[in-house]
Amino acid sequence: MGNDNDNNYFISHMRNFSGREKFDFAHLYATFLLHSHDSVINRAIPMFEGIALEQNMWYIRLAGTNALNQLMEMYTHRQKETRDRIAMLKNANSSPAQLNQLENMVAQTDDQINKIAGILHSIKTQEKDENLRQIYKI
């Protein structure tokens, strides 16, 4: 799992890149985050939002949006797996404590999904570049 020390490396180095380097680094960072705790991911989300909104080159803004989409897919997959596990445990008459813990995980995942979805919606509605508007299907 990625931790805060590893995350600090990414955060400090992201500022040093521009152009194609930032595009590639954003993808690498998002891949790292797929194996990180929510607290680490939450520190990165505003950085990707900033890239998606503030970079001059449209393809760099796309890298920020793509990173957020990767996180959204990871959370959606995690949510489905957790709900499937809840259904399996209910059929097996598992303890309420186990079910409660998994239901809390679903609620936390819902929060993450809603947060990222809101950011993505905001990014897409603010976009003026025609290349990105086509990609975003606006």
What would you say this structure looks like, in words?
The chain is mainly alpha-helical and 138 residues long. It is 83% helix and 0% strand. The chain has helices at residues 4-14, 19-33, 38-54, 58-91, 96-126, 130-135. Helix 3 runs antiparallel to helix 4, helix 3 runs parallel beside helix 5 (96-126) and helix 4 (58-91) runs antiparallel to helix 5. The radius of gyration is 17 Å and the shape is elongated. 23% of the residues are buried.
Features:
138 residues, mainly alpha, elongated
Outline the fold blueprint.
Layout: H1 4-14, H2 19-33, H3 38-54, H4 58-91, H5 96-126, H6 130-135
Order of helices and strands: HHHHHH
| Largest sheet entry | none
Helix-strand category: mainly alpha
The DSSP helix count reads 6
Annotation, overall tally of beta strands: 0
The geometry reads as: elongated
**From the alpha-carbon coordinates, what is the Rg to the nearest angstrom?**
17 Å
Helix content: over 70%
Strand content: under 5%
Mean pLDDT: 92
